[in-house]
Structure to design on (449 residues):
């Protein structure tokens, strides 16, 4: 399959990329890892006049803790996230996520920024970032602006990014002591989108109760879903089996899946409940709450 | 129609080519450079038959533009055999019957070639994880795993 014709630009700096985006507006798309965009163009589900490849711009691939944030460069490869010791030891939820995205070959090209900016509710990082309370940095012609992740996903394949902006950094608050997270995904086979998946990030207080809980779901609605009701329910409670089970129920209520080859509405909602409960349990365990 | 003059190094040989923006790397290799060892399977980023190494990393060449490879190093299955001698992985696939129809084999070889570069003695689990983006519909994978273990052992002895 061959994409419809387009022009390709490989700017060497971010300002050049932004100038091209300003010039072509809606008729341009940013090419990052290309593992979602190129299949879409090949299948002719999408078309663009100009591809702006950010692959040759230095300084967009990094993973480092700095100040109050873990900072991930927008073009950081999923494979880099997966093999990062910092991520594995300090952000297990991100490690869990990276290793179930597509397959190892795709992860050598695919990028974290692309996974978010594509706006696909089937992608895995959105739920993780919602659970972590992340924010993204969008760089445009007028400079940078910071977008809280809960305001980022507007609809199916629609995000708060403007056509003249590039997602340059993801910022994740450094978790306090006694924090833990997990991402659990049900997939039919390696490389498939989730039938359902759940991301949980928990911080425990000194008395062993939940100080903060982040919980979000993948591919059970037109956007990634933040299970706000379940999060609120958990705050201040002891994370025992009954409480986590109730939180899972509430998360499933927030889901609005549609039926497809991966399952019926009822099945997906039930899987969302099971995965949310299990992800919470694992997050609590990793937070040191047994 | 936008075209670009690019230079890619494939298996150590530099090639200059004029490519359309939308030309895929796998088509550059097969149709313009006539290196047909790299196969096109599903053409939808699933099967891994088209796997090549881009600057040493295995990627699906049906999901990379040729122009993205400008100035970079590519390794394909044609580069594995040296001076008429099979690569230990190729020997392994021969000895352990790691293929039947052979369609997935070039991709399997390139993926596992990258694996053995970064991990000298991979466990069975590591091998299975590494090839999880390469589909084989003949072997059931067991003999592919054995072939990679054979090659790892052979390479260990040579070192």
């Amino acid at each position: 399959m061959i994409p419809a014709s387009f022009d390709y630009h490989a700017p060497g700096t971010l300002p050049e990329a932004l100038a091209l985006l300003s010039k072509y507006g809606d008729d341009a798309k940013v090419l990052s890892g290309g593992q979602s965009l190129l299949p879409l163009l090949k299948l002719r589900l999408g078309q663009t006049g100009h591809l702006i490849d950010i692959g040759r711009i230095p300084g967009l691939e990094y993973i480092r803790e700095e100040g109050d944030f873990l900072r991930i460069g927008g073009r950081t490869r999923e494979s880099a996230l997966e093999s990062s010791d910092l991520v594995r030891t300090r952000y297990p939820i991100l490690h869990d996520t990276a290793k179930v995205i597509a397959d190892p070959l795709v992860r050598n090209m695919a990028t974290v920024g692309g996974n978010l900016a594509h706006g696909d509710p089937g992608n895995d990082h959105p739920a993780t970032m919602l659970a972590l309370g992340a924010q993204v940095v969008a760089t445009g012609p007028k400079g940078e602006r910071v977008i809280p992740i809960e305001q980022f996903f507007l609809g199916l394949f629609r995000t708060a990014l403007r056509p003249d902006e590039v997602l340059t950094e993801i910022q994740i608050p450094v978790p306090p002591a006694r924090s833990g997270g997990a991402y659990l995904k049900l997939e039919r086979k390696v490389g498939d989108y989730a039938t359902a998946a759940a991301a949980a990030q928990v911080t425990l207080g000194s008395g062993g109760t939940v100080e903060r809980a982040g919980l979000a779901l993948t591919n059970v609605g037109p956007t990634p879903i933040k299970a706000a009701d379940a999060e609120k329910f958990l705050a201040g409670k002891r994370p025992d089996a009954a409480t986590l089970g109730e939180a899972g129920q509430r998360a499933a209520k927030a889901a609005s899946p549609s039926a497809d080859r991966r399952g019926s509405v009822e099945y997906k909602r039930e899987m969302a409940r099971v995965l949310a409960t299990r992800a919470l349990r694992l997050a609590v365990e990793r937070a040191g709450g047994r | 129609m936008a075209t670009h003059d690019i230079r890619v190094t494939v298996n150590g040989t530099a090639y200059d080519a004029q490519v359309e923006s939308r030309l895929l790397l796998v088509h550059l290799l097969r149709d313009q450079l006539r290196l047909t060892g790299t196969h096109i399977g599903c053409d939808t980023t699933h099967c891994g038959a088209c796997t090549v190494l881009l600057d040493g990393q295995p990627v699906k060449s049906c999901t990379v533009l040729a122009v993205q490879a400008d100035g970079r190093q590519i390794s394909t299955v044609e580069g594995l055999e040296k001076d008429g001698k099979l690569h230990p992985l190729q020997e392994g696939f021969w000895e352990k019957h790691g293929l039947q129809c052979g369609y997935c084999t070039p991709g399997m070889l390139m993926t596992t070639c990258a694996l053995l570069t970064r991990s000298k003695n991979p466990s069975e689990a590591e091998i299975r994880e590494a090839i999880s983006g390469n589909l084989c519909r003949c072997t059931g994978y067991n003999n592919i795993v054995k072939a990679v273990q054979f090659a790892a052992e052979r390479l260990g002895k040579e070192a």
